[in-house]
Amino acid sequence: MGRRYRRRSNGSAIVSDSVYIAARLPWWAAICFGFISFLIFYFGFPAFLESKASEMSASAFSQAFESIFMRRIHWFEWLGIACGLIGVFFGLRNYAISSHAGYEERGLITFLAKIISRNIN
Question: By CB neighbour count within 10 A (0-12 exposed, 13-18 middle, 19+ buried), where does 86 fall?
């Protein structure tokens, strides 16, 4: 019998993958990973989408593009905040404790990062 996989949203998958990566890094690399992913998701993707929207201002698809993607910019900002929080947490945790985080701890941190970043956003 084949395995049944639970389908996750892309944002949730990015957050859980970021937790997995940051849990395996040394403390200084986890902080750098969180900072870089925060910059990419919070500033990079929204700026890219806004530049594409301004380029397409004369085309017929500009209104459809703006209505679909410009309302979703806050999703990228949420991902940036969540990845930044993950990097800060694992930077502090890996500085204090040198062992790798277990499955249950990673799941708890994923859940907390999602909840806290939604409240901050």
Answer: buried
